[in-house]
């Protein structure tokens, strides 16, 4: 959401002393404060739930300009690949001090805090008539940077997280319940953020009207289908790349020699996978592909194709593996869209430029590997035990890459003509070869 946020002016609350917030969130940048929700005045009189600069979750009540109730987790929540379900319960009239402000993460109650101050009995909250509820910001220094889904506020009820999620009977993973809470109270709302044309639509029975400041970017990434992004935690100690747009845009940093770009947050060990990269500023050595040594590459400041388990398509038309290049296909430049089809069932990789497969490749040719760029090493022989999609430079210069792992966007620009996708998972510019799918949890499950 970056500098974008959603607001609404509150009406008369059902109960200023009792309410529940449920929000599914996925962080993009794990440094700096990031407010999930605040209600009340945005600087001195509010109740808020946010991530602090260390990655701890804070639940603060500050009526009248001074804190009356604070919970700050001892745990740190810094995983940019994960959706977190956060439930915050405010119930200041409760006779038990510990139960006046409750935090749950992924269905489990948090009981150990770095800061743990009970609110006074019947302390007022920010849920007050004519005040403002804000999603994604407290003030101009605490924007939430990431994604939100199914944000529900229930005015007048202290609820358990099982009203909003449940443990899967097979996997044991905490998963979302996709039905708005039936009795949201006067100021209650439910923003699913599923309608790509109306992301601030209130799907609760109240149907409140919200205002968006800035630009919300639609995404298929959600708690039920977690899509890969580029990984901001996987980078070298120097010449660090910079990430933005929900970690789907990366700028490699100029350095002498190998410049690290970004690897996918999800890895691949079998199956057939497709993704698209759109270089914005090609430089000498820009390269797109896969690596089987993502962690080690980051530590050594390597790029795609430097190791025996790295396979890349270079902007000059060559293909590169194990620090060696050979002729392969067409050159590419700014604005071209490079498709990558990885068939780990048959250990083949193919590249396309603007929808046309290089070297007359046929990604559906199976073990024959017609026109494949490489026959890749079996996964169990790679250092990391999986392959990751990768973009980088291997010469002095910088390149900006936009990745589309299936969300249908390159940065903030929607794809112009959706290709066919037989797997039914992901939205890409060009046709996805039959049998291939987007790199997401739904794809991994399939």
């Amino acid at each position: 959401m970056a500098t974008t946020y959603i607001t609404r002016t509150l009406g008369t609350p059902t109960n200023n002393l009792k309410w529940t917030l449920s929000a599914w969130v996925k962080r993009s940048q794990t440094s700096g404060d990031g407010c999930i929700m605040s209600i009340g005045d945005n600087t001195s009189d509010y109740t808020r739930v946010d991530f602090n600069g260390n990655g701890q979750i804070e639940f603060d009540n500050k009526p009248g300009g001074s804190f009356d109730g604070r919970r700050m987790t001892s745990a740190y929540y810094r995983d940019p690949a994960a959706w977190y379900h956060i439930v915050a319960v405010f119930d200041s009239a409760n006779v038990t001090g510990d139960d006046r402000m409750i935090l749950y993460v992924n269905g489990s109650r948090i009981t150990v805090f770095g800061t743990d101050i009970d609110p006074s009995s019947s302390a007022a909250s920010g849920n007050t008539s004519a005040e403002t509820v804000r999603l994604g910001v407290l003030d101009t220094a605490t924007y939430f940077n990431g994604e939100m889904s199914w944000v529900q506020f229930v005015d007048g009820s202290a609820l358990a997280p099982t009203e909003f999620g449940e443990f899967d009977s097979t996997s044991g993973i905490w998963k979302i319940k996709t039905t708005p809470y039936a009795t949201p109270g006067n100021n209650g709302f439910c923003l699913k953020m599923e309608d790509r044309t109306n992301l601030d639509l209130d799907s609760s029975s109240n149907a409140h009207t919200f205002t968006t400041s800035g630009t919300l970017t639609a995404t298929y990434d959600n708690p039920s289908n977690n899509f890969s992004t580029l990984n901001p935690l996987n980078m070298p100690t120097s010449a660090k790349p910079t990430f933005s747009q929900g970690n789907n845009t990366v700028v490699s940093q100029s350095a002498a020699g190998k410049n690290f770009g970004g690897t996918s947050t999800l890895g691949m060990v079998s199956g057939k996978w497709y993704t698209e990269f759109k270089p914005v500023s090609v430089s000498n050595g820009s390269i797109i592909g896969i690596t089987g040594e993502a962690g080690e590459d980051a530590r050594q400041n390597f790029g795609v194709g430097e190791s025996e388990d790295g396979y890349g398509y270079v902007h000059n038309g060559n293909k590169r593996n194990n620090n060696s290049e050979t002729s392969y296909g067409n050159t590419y430049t700014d604005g071209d869209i490079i498709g990558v089809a990885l068939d780990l069932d048959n250990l083949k990789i193919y590249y396309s430029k603007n929808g046309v497969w290089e070297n007359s490749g046929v990604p559906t040719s199976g073990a024959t590997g017609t026109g494949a760029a490489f026959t890749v090493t079996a996964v169990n022989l790679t250092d990391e035990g999986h392959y990751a999609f990768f973009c980088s430079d291997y010469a002095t210069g910088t390149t900006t890459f936009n990745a589309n792992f299936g969300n249908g966007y390159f940065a903030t620009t929607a794809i112009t003509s959706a290709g066919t996708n037989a797997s039914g998972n992901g939205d890409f510019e060009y046709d996805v070869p039959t049998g291939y799918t987007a790199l997401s949890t739904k794809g991994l499950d399939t």
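The two ends are 30 Å apart (CA to CA). The chain has two domains: 5-213, 242-445.
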